[in-house]
Amino acid sequence: MTTSEFKPLVSIVLPCRNEQGYIQACLQSALDQDPPEGGLEILVADGMSTDGTREYLQQMATQYPSIRILDNPGRIVSTGLNTAIRAARGEIIVRMDAHTIYAPDYVQQCLAVMSETEADNVGGPMQTTAETFMERAIRAVFHSAFAVGGARSHQAGYEGHVDTVIYGCWKKSVFERIGYFDEELVRNQDDEHNLRLSRAGGKIYQSTRIRSWYHVRGSLKALFRQYMQYGYWRVLVIRKHHAPASFRHLVPGTFVGCLCLLAALGLFWSPALWGVVGLAVLYAAAALVASLVTAACTQWALLPVLPVVVWCFHFGYGYGFLRGILDLVLLHNAPDTQFVQLTRKQCPRPGSVRS
After folding, report:
1. Would you say residue 273 lies in a domain?
2. How sure is the predictor about 22, in pLDDT bands with cuts at 50, 70 and 90?
3. pLDDT confidence bin for 340, thresholds 50/70/90
4. How many CA atoms does the CB half-sphere of 331 hold within 13 Å?
5. How far apart are the C-alpha atoms of 281 and 270, rounded to whole Å?
6. CA distances for 304 relative to 131, 163, 285, 341, angstroms
7. Half-sphere exposure of 247 (CA within 13 A, CB side)
8. How far apart are CA 222 and CA 132, in angstroms?
9. What is the rounded CA–CA span in Å between residue 145 and residue 204?
């Protein structure tokens, strides 16, 4: 089918909760989309916001009939997505995230790439935006292969088939075929859904023509907690599917686990402490080299903090992964509250733009 023949109604689904500092720019970029010929609706699943987000959404819905507000009592992304997808009238589902702004041709390019590639899910690479010094440092490391394990979604120039893609655009029939997002997952629900799609024979495609800009976390603490949650919930995905989607998902947890095991062994056998020292030195050297390369590609002024940012990526994920094994596999406990809570405490200026 050619792009000119592909004229479905498109449903944008946007889960949010307490996003006062981000929702304005995101929603405006959704409203500013070049309208597809089949029409466009915007479904916002609000997780019972208490910070003024709901009031802003209601105000916008009175001005723009294309906006529909839905309650998301589950308060997490997966329940919000499922609520919006089930209520969607469109044949095409385009997911958006409140921490991201989208190019005016985002929806049009999703439709074009889907038509051209016949993929079941399409999206663009993760491009980022930052304002403060720390955000710029986090942004720089975000695109480092050493920090993120070479994930193609972090490679701004990569185009082709992938195992997962950020956000996503699907035919609604995909959800009827393989199921909706897993509501047990607070994080990693998109990766898990893409894993199911791939195992069902579906194709996932990333195109540089599909452009968006994600606003990174604003502090080391928030970054550490974000990746701690990613590692924690990755364990549940692996447990459900009996295998990781990629080997890179196992590396941080294995490394942190080895350090902890050697340190514990060192309490009874002192030579094991040399193993801790050796691993720490090797890691520090690798992190320093990666930081030098990153600084050379971005800003040298960022170099003093880049190794710490790299550490937050790896040790946050690794610690979360080990806690996930303990809580979800060994003890069969309910998830700890620190792995459920939102990780954004500081908001950028409303209407912030990419930089």
Report:
1. yes
2. very high
3. low
4. 10
5. 18
6. 18, 34, 14, 30
7. 1
8. 14
9. 21
Alpha carbon separation from 271 to 254, 263, 266, 285 (Å, rounded)? 20, 10, 7, 22
The dihedral built from the CA positions of residue 185, 189, 191 and 192, taken in this order, carries a sign that is positive
Taking the alpha carbons of 262, 266, 267, 268 in that order, is the dihedral positive or negative? positive
Residue 61 structural domain: 3-124+165-216
Closest CA to 99 of 48, 53, 152: 53
149 in a structural domain: no
Say whether both 75 and 189 belong to one domain.
yes
Q: Which residues of 248-280 are buried (b: 16+ CB within 10 A; e: fewer)?
A: ebeebbebbbebeebeeebeeeeeeeebbeeee
Q: Which residues pair with residue 70 across a beta bridge?
A: 45
Q: Is residue 157 part of a domain?
A: no
How many distinct structural domains can be found in the chain? 2
Side chain identity, residue 253: G
Whether residue 230 sits in one domain with residue 206: no
Question: Which tens digits make up the pLDDT trace of 222-262?
Answer: 999 999 999 999 999 999 888 776 778 889 999 999 999 99
Q: How confident is the model at residue 149 (pLDDT cuts 50, 70, 90)?
A: confident
Closest to 81 in 3D by CA, of 168, 144, 154:
168
- CATH number of the domain where residue 212 is located: 3.90.550.10
Amino acid at 98: A
